[in-house]
């Protein structure tokens, strides 16, 4: 059974349950409607970003019901969302990404009409890159609002720690990365802050795949799911390098949240972290300045590539007119110029609007965001722009789960063999497809 029919089967059970078994919340007299938003933006920096949206929606007269579900990468939030849907009680709006959006839309639970007028009036089709708009459409209709773009293949560096360890240059190759890691260890620092949760392991895995196999190889293996690319010699090499990268990971990082690991780099306990640019939200919340207190560089060997991760908010069908109006308000706010600027500055991302991506300095974005925008536009032309597997952009959640299992087992098994792991990867992915 493929992933779409799997989700559809689960959701269709919902029709057996009484509809709208949930209580209608009493609204404050002046509220135009109440919208619940399920998301996983719960770290200090992420919360600061989502509060920008909440404040605007409330200012517009709607009641924001916060459906935050802790857990980086969102797998807990997705589990909660599925059980809410099965119980016939989906929220008005939920953070859903990539091919998962189409999967949800195919169940009939997403609203294919509610965004139409806003999208036309605000000219979304011309404001957005086709890669972005395709991600949030189902059979030609917008079913989600794209919020921002994250780059995943970053390496975050504390230059003060590098200096103390005697490292004079930011690493641009894997060899230089290992040399820096050795010096950091020798000087008593954690070389690589890393929380050993599956999505974080796979965030590192895909960066290493990109470095070893290039954007073309990455696409074949992690996007097209080509069995030869998944099991071939280049993948074996990538897995060999991954094992070496893992020797620099924080020994106390098992099961640790990404933001707690980011804090170790910010506080000078660790030298580096491989993480998407939501990590910048933590640096920003700690009042640190890009290019001065910290450095963002492409993960070694990946400066000509950009693994993208588009956060988006999907709209679920609702009976209540006030909620529907609230969904439209959220959609309008999110793609507005001011929100795009303030949210992304807090979140560490870059805007989804093409006009803004071309003129980042004007909006006061820092050096990391300016580099990200420039690379996004350049790599879109060169083929270096690829969807992140670890962040739900490349595959369905079922296939992503197969990657997560094999990669995390491989990192944690002291006897693991890269050639054997590549075979397992191919088999697991083929059966999850
Ligand atoms: C990503 C998401 C980001 C950030 C990160 C950590 O998947 O796109 O917005 O929240 O997870 O939770």
What does this structure look like?
This protein is an alpha/beta fold and 433 residues long. The protein folds into two domains: 210 residues, D-Maltodextrin-Binding Protein, domain 2; 199 residues, 3-Layer(aba) Sandwich (D-Maltodextrin-Binding Protein, domain 2), CATH 3.40.190.10. Helix 10 packs antiparallel against helix 12 and helix 12 crosses helix 20. The longest helix has 26 residues. The N and C termini lie close together (9 Å). About 4% of the residues have low confidence. It binds beta-D-galactopyranose. The site of beta-D-galactopyranose has 11 residues, from strand 11. Keywords: Signal, Transport.
Keywords summarizing the entry:
single chain; 433 residues; alpha/beta; D-Maltodextrin-Binding Protein, domain 2; 50% helix; globular; binds beta-D-galactopyranose; Bact_solute-bd_prot1; transport; signal; ABC transporter substrate-binding protein
């Amino acid at each position: 059974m493929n992933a779409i029919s799997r989700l559809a089967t689960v959701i269709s059970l919902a029709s057996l349950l009484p509809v709208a078994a949930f209580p209608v919340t009493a609204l404050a007299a002046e509220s135009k409607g109440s919208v619940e938003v399920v998301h996983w933006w719960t770290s200090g920096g992420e919360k600061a970003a989502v509060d920008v949206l909440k404040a605007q929606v409330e200012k517009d007269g709607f009641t924001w019901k916060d459906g935050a579900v802790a857990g980086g990468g969102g797998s807990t939030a997705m589990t909660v969302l599925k059980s809410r849907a099965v119980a016939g009680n989906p929220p008005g709006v939920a953070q859903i990404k990539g091919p998962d959006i189409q999967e949800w839309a195919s169940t009939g639970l997403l609203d294919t009409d509610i965004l139409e007028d806003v999208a036309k009036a605000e000219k979304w089709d011309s404001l957005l890159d086709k890669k972005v708009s395709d991600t949030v459409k189902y059979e030609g209709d917008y079913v989600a609002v794209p919020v921002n773009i994250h780059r995943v293949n970053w390496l975050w560096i504390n230059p003060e720690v590098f200096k103390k360890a005697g490292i004079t240059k930011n690493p641009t190759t894997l060899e230089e990365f290992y040399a820096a890691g050795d010096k950091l260890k020798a000087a008593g620092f954690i070389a690589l802050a890393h929380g050993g949760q599956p999505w974080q392991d796979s965030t590192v895995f895909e960066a290493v795949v990109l470095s070893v196999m290039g954007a073309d190889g990455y696409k074949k293996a992690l996007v097209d799911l080509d069995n030869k690319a998944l099991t071939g010699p280049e993948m074996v090499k990538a897995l060999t390098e991954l094992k070496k990268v893992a020797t620099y990971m924080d020994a106390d990082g098992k099961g640790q949240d990404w933001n707690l690991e980011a804090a170790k780099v910010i506080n000078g306990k660790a030298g580096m972290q491989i993480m998407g640019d939501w990590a910048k939200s933590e640096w920003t919340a700690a009042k640190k300045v890009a290019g001065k207190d910290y450095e963002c560089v492409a993960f070694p060997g990946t400066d000509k590539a950009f693994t993208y991760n588009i956060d988006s908010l999907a709209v679920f069908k609702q009976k209540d007119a006030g909620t529907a109006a609230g969904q439209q308000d959220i959609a309008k706010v999110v793609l507005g110029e001011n929100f795009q600027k303030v949210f992304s500055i807090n979140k560490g991302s870059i805007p989804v609007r093409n006009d803004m991506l071309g003129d980042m300095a004007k909006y006061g974005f820092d050096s990391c965001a300016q580099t990200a925008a420039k690379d996004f536009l350049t790599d879109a032309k060169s083929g270096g722009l690829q969807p992140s597997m670890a962040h739900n952009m490349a595959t369905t959640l079922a296939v992503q789960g197969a990657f997560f299992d094999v990669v995390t087992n491989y990192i944690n098994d002291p006897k693991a063999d890269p050639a054997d792991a590549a075979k397992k990867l191919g088999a697991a992915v083929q059966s999850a497809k």
